[in-house]
Amino acid sequence: MAENLEKAVSIQGYRGCFHEQAANIFWGKDTEMICCDNFREVVSIAGNKKKSTGGVMAIENSIAGSILPNYNLLKKSNLKIIGEVFLSIKQNLMVLPGTKLEDIKEVRSHPMALLQCADYLDKHNWKLVESEDTALSAQKISQNKLKTAAAIASEIAAEIYDMEIIAPEINTMKRNYTRFLMLQRADMVKEIEDANKASIYFYTDHSKGSLAKVLTKIAESGSNLSKLQSFPIPGSNWEYSFHADLEFENIEDFHHALSAITPISKNLKVYGIYKKGKTY
């Protein structure tokens, strides 16, 4: 149970993970982190008023693409999107203070982080050990005083676990960004002043040009379609549902878009109206 529900959010991963970094940016560094093993737990706790005030969930990465299961979790939840953060993912090689590069015999991290740093790791004859979380790797090395092991994790993980970054930003692709959604229960959401982005869900039938008609109406409303993600509807005859992100200069343009597409779409749902996120 969180001690301060007004400043407690659920995140996927352990203290020092990138979810925590995104949460600190949006909610503030005094926010209490409720660490979860998986995204389903993140959504469950974020939706429970007795456990948290909201949650943070990664939704897409500039290299790996969309995290499709998380769209489904959002759809089934009572949560709304109240903001977003685009975080530059910088992987760092860290060790116990005093450990030198030549002392390292193994490197521990999440499989994706190891893959992201493959070019750097290939230059060394180290044993690579996969773990369930980048920050957890740093935590275990710190707790167990493993002087010949290194972890790949974030700067904040190094700070939390008193690790020394011996090689910063070793990820191969320097332009690697993850988009994190800031989520809150529908009954807590307040109107956001100067909102200029929204996320919606809808589906169309299989008739010719049905999706094109929806997209045309969105364009005519003055809103810009910045993302469109499709999902097959289980049990249907080749029908698809869609998640769309719309950007606009004023809220009237968005409401105009909603009015225009309501008659030609089904199950229209607004996931959230918020401010377009910045990149950090």
Supply the key terms.
six-stranded mixed beta sheet, 34% strand, alpha/beta, 280 residues, D-Maltodextrin-Binding Protein, domain 2, 3 domains
Protein model, in words:
With about 280 residues, the chain is of the alpha/beta class. The chain folds into 3 domains: about 5-90 and about 175-185, D-Maltodextrin-Binding Protein, domain 2, CATH 3.40.190; about 90-165, Periplasmic binding protein-like II (D-Maltodextrin-Binding Protein, domain 2, 3-Layer(aba) Sandwich); about 195-270, ACT domain (Alpha-Beta Plaits, 2-Layer Sandwich), CATH 3.30.70.260. Helix content is about 25%, strand content about 35%. It contains 9 helices and 15 strands. It has helices spanning about 20-25, 40-45, 70-75, 110-115, 120, 135-145, 155-160, 210-220, 250-260, and strands at about 10, 30-35, 55-60, 65, 80-90, 90-95, 105-110, 125-130, 150-155, 165, 175-185, 195-205, 225-230, 240-245, 265-275. The strands form 3 sheets. Strands 1, 2, 3, 4, 5 and 11 form a 6-stranded mixed β-sheet that branches. It is elongated and about 65 Å long. The mean pLDDT is about 95. It catalyses: prephenate + H(+) = 3-phenylpyruvate + CO2 + H2O. Pathway: Amino-acid biosynthesis; L-phenylalanine biosynthesis; phenylpyruvate from prephenate: step 1/1. One of its GO terms (biological process) is L-phenylalanine biosynthetic process.
